[in-house]
Protein: Eukaryotic translation initiation factor 2A
Amino acid sequence: MSKPILFTHCTDQEFNFLEAPSFTKLESSTYSGQKYKFSKDGKFVAIYDPLNLVIVNTQNQKRHSTLKMYHTPYVIEFSPKNNYLITFELYSSKHKKESMGNLAIWDTKSGKELIRIQSYQKEIWPQAIFSQDETLLALLNQSSVAFYNLKCLNIGPIKKKNQKGIRNFDFVQAGNELLLYIFSKGGKTVGSTAEIFVYPEFGTPVFSQTLMNSDKMSIYWSFNKRCALLSSSSDIDMTGNRYYGSTNLYWLYRQSNGKFKFQNVGITETIHSFKWNPVKNEFCVIYGSMPAKKILYDDLCEPYFEFGGGSRNDQSWSSDGKFLAFTGFGNLNGGVDIWSMEHYKQIKFLDESFGSQYGWSEDSKFFYIAVVREKLKVDNGYKIFTTFGKLVKHEQFDVLVDARFCPAIKGTFEPVEIDEETIKTANRTYQQEKKKKELNKNNEQNSNLFIPSFKKGRTTQQSSSIGKKERHPMFIKKKKKLKVEQVKKEKGRGRGRGRGRVRGRGRGRGRRRGRGRGRGRGRGNGNKNEKEIQKENENNNQKNRQNLNNMSFDGMPNKEFLSYFGNYKQDEIIKMQKENDKKDPQKVIRNLKKKIKEINALKKKKSNKQKLNNAQKTKIKQEPIYKYEIHRLKK
Structure:
């Protein structure tokens, strides 16, 4: 089995090959260039140096062929079998003067240019897609998708699909069929449409869906092309809940009759990332405000597992689908969570604050994090870790353009087999490290806090000669306040006399005796430890929960009530009840009735088919909880 190879590239025009597991530079494997692209199977890499595009064989690191370039390529793409190469250049005045196209197709063996076409849309890519057997080439124009026979490109297109306003397309092989996906943007009165056709019959689509307020819509197929995800985005959010536009996610499933089932995934919050498992028909979505939710969906678009962890905004699957890494870079504090997808347990946390590129090796044994020049101009370099978080290689550069693992075809490497015991031990060590970090954080926070002398257990020795400042009534009042706080925190049982609102401490178990005219009752735990106090508080909370569960509302037990309406957790309901018990119950009931009136008004709007925002929808869901609280307070 061949070993995974890491490629690094710097501004001093060096392009290096490194071989695992030590990741040392291979001899005579340095090339000059500023841009490169791998083939899908990882057998070849195209490196661009000024006026030349060098195709290198990654197995022996030798030149395969050289393509003479006239302009710097914006995009480089290999065909599935590596016989052809596409280069796309940004259209400029030079192309106009020389009357030549900016999208070229090359023969990789001979290095000859086969055809050149003019293309003006740099925002839209891909604009050219090969079929899996390399017999057809699909090219996108502004108003059509043209299909060419690769053996005779000069003849022209053999088939065309004309449609106005095409913004995105895809051409994939699903079993024995070739599927063409087209997204065309609508206008003010006409919605945007997403359609799927079976090549070469473009009469009636297999799937067609019209969506309003959709500026972009991309399709992401599963590994066997049985399912797909449609990502729809608009620059302006019509509901007004988001500032940076709205994103929606839809699920497609091909049925036995050949037609597609269309379903909204049902995520109303902002979507940060979504990716398919490369081996199964399951996908993971990261959405919501930080800390974001990370949920795994099955092949029927039903959520069945929720990941824990901190704030993360991206994900990376290993090629065999056995490991999943959640990353929190960009505008977040950083960090990588590595999960075992066979056992659904987190096995490692990588405490890395910066990272612009990251990914797995094709054998799923290594994970890399790199900081490149395009994203960050400081601390350029890369780190390579094992699956269980051991640092294998760390290298820094003044400027690093790119760093990544070489891709490979599935089945090239032996599958990784890890026992349950090793994953359990890794999970235990991760949990222990997590607890230690939390304790260290708490200790740091406590060390930064100001602790007065009486709280530390010290007694301040006052000098006999007291200055004018200490005699001032303002300072005397402050000292009295401190004493009151001290009395409140030093709780004890007993009775005593105290002044006004201050509760006196009695002669029983309390430490201080009350003074003054008024009588007060001191309550507390005396000389009990903090652990004993925590246990008592936990027992009280458990009793409150049991009382809450035993209660019922309108004949419905409270457990069923909470599981059905599920807007609040039990602890939150207990908190709300405690706050309401402190207040005047009649005033609380009045306020709750006002809220119910507002909810009834929103219900009328909903019945009249008026649009409601997310806040109004959640308000309607809270009605039974308000009714429940009124019922409890009246009792």
Residues 530-634 form one domain. Residues 420-448 form the longest helix (29 residues). The longest strand covers residues 166-174. Residues 441 and 447 are 10 Å apart (CA to CA).
